[in-house]
Amino acid sequence: MINPTTNSNLQKKNNSAKCPDCDFELDVPCDIEKGEILSCPGCGLELEVKKISDGGGCVDLQELTIEGEDWGE
Question: Mind listing the pLDDT tens digit of every residue in the chain (73 residues)?
């Protein structure tokens, strides 16, 4: 059995972030990594994790933009 007082991963709280479109307060998992994609439950916007603060607790999100292929047109 794992003792939660010795396992620091179990003590970490979720990060917080706001949707840049609707200002919905998102709970972002503490193990999220830069580049991961989230969906805002408030407006459904697809968001990409751009930056995670050094101490955790705050995540910068940006609207996901999918670039189309350039066929030389």
Answer: 454 444 433 445 577 788 989 999 988 888 888 899 999 999 999 999 888 876 656 788 889 877 767 676 5
Phi/psi of residue 38, each to 5°? -125, 160
- Go through 31-49 and write b for each residue having 16 or more CB atoms within 10 A of its CB, e for each that does not: ebeeeeebebeeeebebeb
What local confidence, expressed as pLDDT, does residue 24 receive? 93
Please enumerate in sequence order all residues whose Cβ is within 8 A of that of 2, keeping only pairs 6 or more positions apart, or say none. 10
Q: Which tokens go with 29?
A: 């998992």
CATH class of 13-63: mainly beta
Position 34, amino acid? K
For residue 57, the one-letter residue type is G
